[in-house]
What we know:
Layout: H1 2-9, E1 16-19, H2 25-36, E2 40-45, H3 48-58, E3 62-66, H4 72-86, E4 91-94, H5 109-138, E5 144-148, H6 161-181, E6 187-193, H7 215-226, E7 236-239
Parallel strand pairs: 1-2, 1-4, 2-3, 4-5, 5-6, 6-7
Helix pairs in contact: 2-7, 4-5, 5-6
Amino acid sequence: MTDQKAERNKVGAGKSAFVTGASKGIGYAVAQALAQAGYSVTITSRNEQEVTGAAEQIGQNVRGVVCDVRDAQALQGAVDGHVAAFGGLDVLFVNAGVGKFANVKDMSIEDWDTMLDTNLSGAFYTVKAALPALTESAKNGGGYIFLLSSLAGKNPFAGGAAYNASKFGMNGLSEVLMLDLREDDIKVTQFMPGSVATYFGGHTPSDADAWKIQPEDIAQLTVDLLELPRRTLPSRVEVRPSRPAKK
């Protein structure tokens, strides 16, 4: 009986979430935390083997779907499949992103396009695909969008032309979404983390990353915000390591 009561009290009981770029790193941690909170979850990735394996690791009521967020039509199909499988959509976590860094004179047009198309246009496509279902959820007290931006969205650095541009754009998009959708009772929060121990940009996490934000920290923030009263909206959350490594 106690276990049944705990299950009913889970914040995500009877609800569902869609997380992009979730085969590893922040997306994986968020999807895992949402599943543990009772949500049925769809995760996406461009790599079929990785996304299938991640879904199996997270467990029951988790779907792994191959999807490139640069493809608006594929995204719509993935969201429609989620709604068909779970009966609706309550939480969207826009996480998919890439990073390639080079001096402007050395950066290829292909790399520029890849980052802007993935990090910024992909975020817009994801939200557009999910909005009808989120609007329906909002009528019943649901409807929440999280977008993963970065402190690089307000702090430019050498070699970061495309990445900075995509994240500056993401910040603008997130703030406009918050203003556009609040009248529809859809909440929008952008996370702006600093250094996170992930596989981003070809990095492999190790013990040397212990000082960094961990993916599980962003996941915990997500679940905590979902438990806030509907009247309260932290629209921008900047997250930094408490004690950065000394240079």
